[in-house]
Structure formats: structure tokens, C-alpha cells
Amino acid sequence: xxxxxxxxxxxxxxxxxxxxxxxxxxxxxxxxxxxxxxxxxxxxxxxxxxxxxxxxxxxxxxxxxxxxxxxxxxxxxxxxxxxxxxxxxxxxxxxxxxxxxxxxxxxxxxxxxxxxxxxxxxxxxxxxxxxxxxxxxxxxxxxxxxxxxxxxxxxxxxxxxxxxxxxxxxxxxxxxxxxxxxxxxxxxxxxxxxxxxxxxxxxxxxxxxxxxxxxxxxxxxxxxxxxxxxxxxxxxxxxxxxxxxxxxxxxxxxxxxxxxxxxx
Length: 264
Hints:
The structure is a single chain. The protein is α/β, with parallel strands linked by helices and about 260 residues long. The protein contains 10 helices and 9 strands. Strand 2 (about 20-25), helix 1 and strand 3 form a beta-alpha-beta unit.
């Protein structure tokens, strides 16, 4: 699809019919990381995934702001009607902003391990992340090498990142440019998003990882500040809180089904 600012964004159709269910991935990710999980959601609606700008097969064109990237998601849903939005990490922040600014498009919201206020993180955090990602040697000789590079301490992150590379003549390269990812994440430590939390009026499920990247207690507060919010913290989960797909589907599908059943 082409956005209102002319940027090409890749939209993946996972299948299903009826209520749209839009999946928004995290930083450095892509829509296809949702693949098998998305197939488990197709019984509940028409499941789609968006490659955020600068990610996957989408064009690497700024601005790299939460507002612009939430608007991108809105433009996916506009021709389809209101739907449910599930966002992980970066995608959770975009989903939150979308629900706050376009309540006509979001009937239910699921935010996975993302906070509204990361301004308390050390000033060098995002710069350090850029140095760390930049220090990982590219190209990788194989997808197994990608898993090895990123799979510590949790292998699930390595397997996730192995989906987020492109095979070229000289090996495998990360699909997202490190400098773009650093600019995107840099906004998160310069400002907070409590106004967006306070703007959410639809049913919302906030899923915090047991080993979360979010400041302690923040996701519970986010849920408490939304009129129909609920907070859960599944045991044994890391930042990729949906890595155990069976457990995640058991958790989230009753919420999605209830939202769809209550829709006018």
C-alpha cells in the first residue's frame, strides 16, 4: 500500500474473515514474525500484519515518529472498518497511539511489553543500543549465525531476528538499518506517552513480560488509567512475551472473542 505521504508499506494477509485483527511488530522486526501465531487467530477475524516503515519490505522513509507510524496503521484499517490491534514493543506503542487518536478504528487493543514512559532510562541507552547492533558483524554467513548472535540469554530472540534478515549474494543482512532503528527508539527516551494512554477508551489488555524491559509497575498503571483496561504478567516470559504461541493464544483469544462479541 501507499501511505498518504507516498511511502510504500508492505501489508501481509494471514487469512480469516470478518473483523480485522491488525498485528504490529516490534523494533527491528517484520510482519512475518507473527506468521504461526497469526494463523491461530484467523478463526476470530481477518488477520493482517504491517511491516512498519523502515522494516521488512516497507520503504525506509521517515519521519520516524510515533504519530506518523500510528497513522500508517490507521491507513491500513481505514478501508476495512474498525478492528482489533495487537502490538508488541514498538508496535504496542503505535497501537496505543492509534487507539487514542482514532477510536473509530480500534475496537480492542492488546499491548505487549511496552511502557508509556521510558524517559527514566539512562541517557545513553539508545545510543548504546545503536553501538551494540552496529557492532554485530554483517553479513551473517547463515540464519543459524543470526540465531547465535542474538540468542543470548533467550534463544527466542535469536530465532525472531533470524526472520528479520535478507539473503544477499554475500550473506544475510538485517532488514532494518541500525541508524533508523536508533532514531525511532530515541524518541521513546525524550518524551512520555501518558496522554495516549489516557486517550484510550476501548477494551485494552496490557501483557507484561515477567522479565520485562518496562519499568516495574508501569504497565499495571497503564491498565488502571484506561476505563476498560486489564493487566496480566504471564510467568516465565521474556520481552517476546508471545514466544510461547500456545500459551499466548490461550491468554489473548478470550479477550479478542469478547471484544468481537460485544461489537455493534
